[in-house]
What we know:
This protein is α+β, with helices and mostly antiparallel strands and 430 residues long. It contains 15 helices and 16 strands.
Amino acid sequence: MALITKKPRGTEDVLPRDSYRWQFLENIFREEARAFGYKEMRTPVFEHTNLFERGVGDTTDIVQKEMYTFLTKGGDSITLRPEGTAGACRAFLEHGLHNDPLPIKAYYLTSCYRYEKPQAGRLREFHQFGMECYGTQAPAADAELITAAANIFERLGLRGISLEINSIGCPKCRAEYHKALTEYYSQYRETLCEDCKSRLERNPMRLLDCKVPHDHEIAKGAPMMPDYLCDECREHFEGVKEYLDANDVAYTVNPTIVRGLDYYTKTVFEFLSGDIGAQSAVCAGGRYDGLIEELGGNPMPALGFAAGIERLLLTLDAQGIEIPAPAPCDIYIGSMGEDAHKKASQLCNILRKAGMYAEFDVVGRGLKAQMKYANKIGAKFSMVLGDDEIANGVAKLKNMDNGEQSEIPLEDEAFVKEFTAAKLAAEFAE
Ligand code: ATP
Ligand code: MG
């Protein structure tokens, strides 16, 4: 049988030698989420297809072109999640979370699936960190959410991440705007791309989002939503900006940032990286006050964002930001002979139970090769056990950094105690 050695297009493996890079980000996400009172939420990787049709919107690119949808053996239509918000809202409703103290603050770290053309920063399986907040209309909540994202990027050490914000109003003020937008674009109808022709009929706001150069030019002269905001939406937007100012979060207002569906309301925002080429959005989000109702619940204001983990890693690389390497092996215990080998196994185990990272030979190598391996994995200390050491109950502990050696008793309790002391002394000396 032929060897299966090719992953599907648009997917990536994370290898043991690289996973610390992901964990570094994930730890920061979790810590920052905690600081803002967000708790983790986990939802299935697949959901009923109609959840996304309604929750993402059936005029969006995601639903029209990008979903991984299939029929189960039972005949149900199932879709791999293309994003995290719809599943989170479904779970919110299914478990009646509106009965818990509001606001509900949830975060997730998940894989997402979109059938797109793979290129730098655009994958078919990718990963998002997202935060979702339910049960508040207050502009302070929008600013708090945006600040959480800004703090994360700051902690990652990223430079030159720009924040662009906009308000797309509410269904009330947007009706006027849609009229103006449709009127403006109608004069160019024949010259628009096919997608935009259909957007003009179904979802005019999305016209501003078109990446085709000709249509992009036309968008520059289009009427802009901020000029059409009703008093309530205008005040809300002002409030968001004031709280962002209070938090020292820098932003620019970009009236072309849109989400083309009625249940997206008021605040929308994007964080952009100047260092990763065309796929520059590392994070996007906003308010979706109409979404919970759209999915069948009672009206419930909500907001959230999602950040693309692969794009954040690309940005870190592009900026030459070094991710701290994981702590190396505390000790490698080499051995010669059957008894010594068993003793090495046993001592490693008691160190591991004491929270340390210890290794011995599980391959069957000779002593020389064992010590070569200890060097390769960067063990901080090493020790060699042979018949003499077993007989005397004492061995030589070697600090691999400076070559210093000291005697260490092999009796369990004394061994752990003295090794811990040696390890602390070495860390202190660093
Ligand atoms: P884009 O403008 O790149 O198409 P989007 O508007 O489709 O992004 P969202 O649905 O808002 O993206 O998803 C939030 C974030 O997830 C994006 O800002 C990006 O960082 C990341 N992301 C989206 N699609 C992909 C993908 N195919 N591959 C890698 N990351 C992605
Ligand atoms: Mg996209």
